[in-house]
Amino acid sequence: MTCLLIVEDEKPIRDMFRFALLRTEFSLLEAEDAQSLWTVLDQQQPDLILMDWMLPDSSGIELTQRLKQDEQFAKIPIIMLTARSEEKDKIQGLNAGADDYVVKPFSPLELLARIKAVLRRTSQQNTPQIELIYEQLVINVESHQLHINEKKIDIGPKEYRLLKHFMENPNRVFSRSQLMDRIWGRNTYVEERTVDVHIRRLRKLLSPYDYQQQIQTVRGAGYLFSNKSQQ
Ligand code: CA
Questions:
Q1: How confident is the model at residue 125 (pLDDT cuts 50, 70, 90)?
Q2: Are residue 138 and residue 117 in the same domain, yes or no?
Q3: What is the Cα–Cα distance from 78 to 150, expressed in whole angstroms?
Q4: How far is the CA of 98 from the centre of ligand 1 (A)?
Q5: Are residues 84 and 195 in the same domain?
Q6: Which of 66, 101, 125 is the C-terminal boundary of a domain?
Q7: Residues 141 and 116 in one domain
């Protein structure tokens, strides 16, 4: 199933759209404001986002810019929804990185057609897949998927980023504060033990395949990913 996320504070519009998606190949996630958008994205990565222009706690433009600047979300196509129809707003939306633009009120069928067109276009644009590989551990940085022994592994966004960062920089020690900057971002405040929590989750996730030992604790310094085979 293709997963759509609608970010829209007007419940009737979300309801109408959810109804329109019944018996289609699409499933729907919903967020009513910016805060719930980030909560949803922490759990699941949608295939496309429908972004309302005016939200109670942010603007769709601002959120679109933030998503497009974020490595993890930059590839998700975004269609802006707005009541405004002026040309300059359209340009502003597209400049922010939106892939298309639909003016309210829209018919659900028209929106569905636009969604399919954007998905077709963006999947064609996708560059050849790039992989980070250590033995049977394979990260696809395009699809944000982890495979071990050719089996797809469910991995949380923070654990994914940690593992990707480690695999891009093998055998290099990173302190907790470096990891906080790189994984959580400089502007987010997290406690150092949060890093430990996610390292623990990552190890737990790798342990059935015996790869937990690649994530090594360096006493007094931090963590590293060892790409040396374990005997
Ligand atoms: Ca609105």
A1: low
A2: no
A3: 31
A4: 17
A5: no
A6: 125
A7: no
pLDDT per position as a tens digit, 44-63 = 899 999 999 999 999 999 99
DSSP conformational letter for 164: H
Ligand 1 center from residue 70 Cα (angstroms): 23
Distance in Å, CA 54 to ligand 1 centroid: 4
The range of the structural domain enclosing residue 116 comes to 2-125
Q: Which helix (H) or strand (E) holds 192?
A: helix 192-206
In angstroms, the CA 160 to CA 162 distance is 5
- Whether 231 maps to a domain, the answer reads no
Average pLDDT over residues 213-221: 94
> What distance in angstroms lies between residue 83's CA and the mean position of ligand 1's atoms?
9
Span 53-77, mean pLDDT? 92
Question: Beta-carbon neighbour count of residue 167 at 10 Å?
Answer: 20
Place of tokens 């990891």: 179
Number of domains in the chain: 2
User: Tell me, what's the pLDDT at 11?
Assistant: 96
